[in-house]
């Protein structure tokens, strides 16, 4: 609180929510000094009733979060690819960024190994653009049909009410598309010291459209300018013993003292022709969320700088009630055939209507900073007027000059082909090359920490599940499966057998003699 906010007690009279002055806020209204209370003590009733309504459902995922306001300043020039005003050279756009962990509840400790959310709402002159990403460029699944099951394994077991490593590894070992994200999660990057020292990624493939109506595919990256910092499991355990709010403390304090965190916004661009050629050459799908685009083929292009420079004034109003929706998109930025993105276009706005209410977009933190003209009508907590320029224009089309569609904002058509079917998303999609490549990038110490982190997370998991998962690591790289097996102190038998090693070799290994 600044000095200017501290006013003397006599300046402001306490009131009810209806503005009626309150004479006594210390003593309830009773019949006699020791008697029961009177129903007419409206002030007491209002206080208790309000308290009972202070909680709304926490987010079904990403419940624990930390956020701040800031700006995006565009220093590069990608106007050849997009007409979006927010991405034009020199543009400066206000934003709010909410970071989060995925699995923990609202009161979870911050220093936990988990993916971090990196969700940005840009208040652009063409409406809000929400880029709801993570601190990882890929994800655990590539088909949204699997999302509720995946999340179920991350949350509490229905009987024990504890998180279940057995369920997690059962699901992962049956879902090899998760290998890339698992390798990141259990590497150093899976436990950042705070959110200033990590990258953010849009993760999905999106599209950009330029003034000429030409479309390219794009991936968004936010590279931390603070450098990367991580905790080991042991360090994090100490931190959690000291404070459960380490990330909140770090982010709030650094902004409060004027040490504003910054990220460089970069994009990778793929033309439609390049997408077809890359797909042909590698067999990979440019819209597969479990894959990255190699930087050497699709170099990073600098776009601008994202800075966080203002803490929220009220955490509940501005961070708990911020509603991030991948469906919020602006002219010049569009979706792609990524099927997980397609599902998210539905899921978030639906979640907000349930969690916050029908008119959640009208809450101050969510309200666009540009004129809003729509015909949506009533519902709980309607506290705005429809700005249609004419009270009689409450439907559309009308002959009263109410707001109407404008074909200038149409996207170029996207050719689609193929018969409708439930195609096996596993066939023809390699799950092992990219996680194997990432594994091979790690130095010996990083690899050992990866093995140890995975082994720690597998404690108590049935051996059959562990063996199934080891076989998957081995398919990424024999040294990967072998390293985890050794960290688990398991004998080299079963499905995780390394291809090409003989029974004798395995026997030697189990005796501690390297094959
Ligand atoms: C939050 C659904 C995949 C990042 C949420 C929420 C839902 C959801 C329902 C809670 C929204 C709220 O109540 O405010 C889904 C579904 C997915 C999916 C159905 C896949 C089928 C992803 C992916 C990413 C992601 C791939 C990142 C690339 C986030 C983030 C939040 C979130 C950052 C928190 C947003 C905030 O800070 O308010 N997700 N999600 N999710 N999700 Fe997802």
Account of the protein in words:
With 515 residues, this protein is an alpha+beta fold. Helices cover 28% and strands 15% of the residues. The protein contains 14 helices and ten strands. Strands 1, 2, 3, 4, 5, 6, 7, 8, 9 and 10 form a ten-stranded antiparallel beta sheet that branches. The radius of gyration is 27 Å and the shape is globular. Protoporphyrin IX containing FE binds next to strand 2, strand 3, strand 4 and helix 9.
Q: What characteristics describe this protein?
A:
single chain; 515 residues; alpha+beta; 14 helices; 15% strand; disordered N terminus; disordered C terminus; catalase; peroxidase; Catalase_core; heme; iron
Short summary:
The protein is 28% helix and 15% strand.
Please render the helix and strand layout as text.
Blueprint: H1 42-52, E1 65-74, E2 92-101, E3 116-124, E4 127-134, H2 147-154, H3 165-173, H4 179-185, E5 200-201, E6 206-209, E7 215-224, H5 233-242, H6 246-256, E8 262-271, H7 272-282, E9 301-310, H8 315-320, E10 333-334, H9 339-355, H10 433-441, H11 444-457, H12 463-476, H13 478-488, H14 503-510
Antiparallel strand pairs: 1-2, 1-9, 2-3, 3-4, 5-7, 6-7, 6-10, 7-8, 8-9
Helix pairs in contact: 2-3, 3-12, 4-10, 11-13, 12-13
The structure holds protoporphyrin IX containing FE.
**Overall residue-averaged pLDDT value:** 93
> What small molecules are bound in this structure?
protoporphyrin IX containing FE
Morphology: globular
Distance between the termini: 66 Å
Report the sheet with the most strands, covering strand number, pairing sense and barrel closure.
Answer: 10 strands, antiparallel
CATH-scheme architecture of the domain at 65-140 and 180-367: Beta Barrel
CATH topology of the domain at 65-140 and 180-367: Catalase HpII,  Chain A, domain 1
Q: How many beta-strand elements?
A: 10
Cα gyration radius (Å): 27 Å
Helical fraction: 25-40%
EC number: 1.11.1.6
Pfam family, one: Catalase
Cofactor: heme
Region (Disordered): 494-515
């Amino acid at each position: 609180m600044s000095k200017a906010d501290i006013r003397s007690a006599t300046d402001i009279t306490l009131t009810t929510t209806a503005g009626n002055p309150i004479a006594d806020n210390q003593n309830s209204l009773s019949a006699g000094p020791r008697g029961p209370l009177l129903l007419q003590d409206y002030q007491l009733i209002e206080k208790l009733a309000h308290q009972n309504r202070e909680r709304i459902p926490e987010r079904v995922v990403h419940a624990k979060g930390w956020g701040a306001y800031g700006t995006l300043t565009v220093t590069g020039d990608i106007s050849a690819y997009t007409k979006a005003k927010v991405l034009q050279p020199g543009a400066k756009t206000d934003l709010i960024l909410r970071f989060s962990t995925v699995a923990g509840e609202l009161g979870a400790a911050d220093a936990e190994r988990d993916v971090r959310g990196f969700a940005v709402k840009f208040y652009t002159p063409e409406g809000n653009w929400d880029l709801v990403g993570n601190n990882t460029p890929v994800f655990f699944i590539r088909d949204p049909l699997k999302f509720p099951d995946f999340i179920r394994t991350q949350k509490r077991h229905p009987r024990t009410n504890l998180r279940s490593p057995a369920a997690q590894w059962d699901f992962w070992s049956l879902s090899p598309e998760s290998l890339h994200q698992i390798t990141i999660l259990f590497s150093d990057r899976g436990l950042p010291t705070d959110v200033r020292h990590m990258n953010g990624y849009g993760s999905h493939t999106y599209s950009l459209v330029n003034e000429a109506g030409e479309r390219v595919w794009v991936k968004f990256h936010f590279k931390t300018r603070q450098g990367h910092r991580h905790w080991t499991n042991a360090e994090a355990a100490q931190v959690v013993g000291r404070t459960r709010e380490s990330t909140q403390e770090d982010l709030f304090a650094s902004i409060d003292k004027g040490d504003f965190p910054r990220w460089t916004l970069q994009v990778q661009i793929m033309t439609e022709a390049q997408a077809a050629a890359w797909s042909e050459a590698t067999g990979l799908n440019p819209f597969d969320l479990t894959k990255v685009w190699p930087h050497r083929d699709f170099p990073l292009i600098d776009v601008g700088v994202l800075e966080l420079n203002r803490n929220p004034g009220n955490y509940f109003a501005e961070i708990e009630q911020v509603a991030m929706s991948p469906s919020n998109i602006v002219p010049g930025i569009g979706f792609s055939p990524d099927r997980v993105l397609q599902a998210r276009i539905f899921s978030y706005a639906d979640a907000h209507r349930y969690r916050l209410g029908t008119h959640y977009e009208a809450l101050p933190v969510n309200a666009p900073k540009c004129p809003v003209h729509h015909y949506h009508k009533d519902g709980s907590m309607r506290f705005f007027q429809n700005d249609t320029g004419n009270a009689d224009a409450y439907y559309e089309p009308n002959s009263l000059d109410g707001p109407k569609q404008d074909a200038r904002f149409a996207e170029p058509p996207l050719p689609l082909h193929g018969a409708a079917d439930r195609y096996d998303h596993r066939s023809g999609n390699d799950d092992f090359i990219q996680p194997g490549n990432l594994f091979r990038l790690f130095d010996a110490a990083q690899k050992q920490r990866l093995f140890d982190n995975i082994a720690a997370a597998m404690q108590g998991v049935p051996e059959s599940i562990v063996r199934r998962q080891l076989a998957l690591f081995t398919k990424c790289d024999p040294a990967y499966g072998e390293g985890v097996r050794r960290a688990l102190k398991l004998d080299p038998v079963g499905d995780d057998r390394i291809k090409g090693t003989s029974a004798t070799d395995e026997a030697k290994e189990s005796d501690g003699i390297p094959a």
